[in-house]
Amino acid sequence: MSDEGEANDGARRALVVDDDAAIRILVSRILSRRGFLVDAAADGAEAIEDLLEHDYDLVTLDLMMPRIDGYGVVKYLQEHQPELFNRLIVMTAFSPHALEKICPPVVRIIHKPFEIDELVREAEEAIAS
After folding, report:
1. In the chain, where are the structural domains located?
2. What are phi and psi of 111, to 5 degrees?
3. Which CATH architecture has domain 2-128?
4. Rounded to an integer, what distance in angstroms lies between the CA atom of residue 10 and that of residue 106?
5. Burial class (CB in 10 A: 0-12, 13-18, 19+), 77
6. In angstroms, what CA-CA distances link 112 with 5, 61, 72, 105?
7. Rounded to an integer, what distance in angstroms lies between the CA atom of residue 14 and that of residue 54?
8. Which residue among 5, 67, 86, 91 sits deepest, i.e. has the most Cβ atoms within 10 Å of its Cβ?
9. Alpha-carbon distances, residue 29 vs 11, 16, 37, 85 (angstroms)
10. How far is CA 124 from CA 38, 93, 118, in A?
11. pTM value?
12. Tens digits of per-residue pLDDT, 25-78?
């Protein structure tokens, strides 16, 4: 877990989960510049630790990671924080078929490589929902 910004009361808080450090840093910076206080996790195990410690307004999640993968984080959210499931953005290089085993289906999916505008739009829509 690493904070990409300083504590800021009233700020929207996001968790960025990706084992690729370059993507994790890029997404963290994009969201931070859009006013989010960002925590970053390198795998699903770190993500679940962060989810236990903080309340998040948004989660971006890679699927294929070591220790606990994205599917494990989705299962955790469904069982323990279902209110956050609608504010989840799955970011994946896999085809849509890779998400078929998730039920209920993930609403927000961004395919890598992604456009920055697409990420910002999905984040704002997720927060508004």
Report:
1. 2-128
2. -95, 130
3. 3-Layer(aba) Sandwich (3.40)
4. 27
5. buried
6. 25, 12, 20, 19
7. 10
8. 91
9. 15, 10, 10, 23
10. 15, 22, 10
11. 0.86
12. 999 999 999 999 999 999 999 999 999 999 999 999 998 888 999 889 999 999
Give yes or no for residue 103 having a pLDDT over 70. no
56 and 85 Cβ atoms separated by less than 8 Å: no
Give residue 128's identity as a one-letter amino acid code. A
The tokens of 21 are what? Answer: 């450090």
Which amino acid appears at position 107 of this protein? V
SS (H, E, C) the chain: CEECCCCCCCCEEEEEECCCHHHHHHHHHHHHHCCEEEEEECCHHHHHHHHHHCCCCEEEEECCCCCCCHHHHHHHHHHHCHHHHHHEEEEECCCHHHHCCCCCCCCEEEECCCCHHHHHHHHHHHHHC
Polymer length of the chain: 129
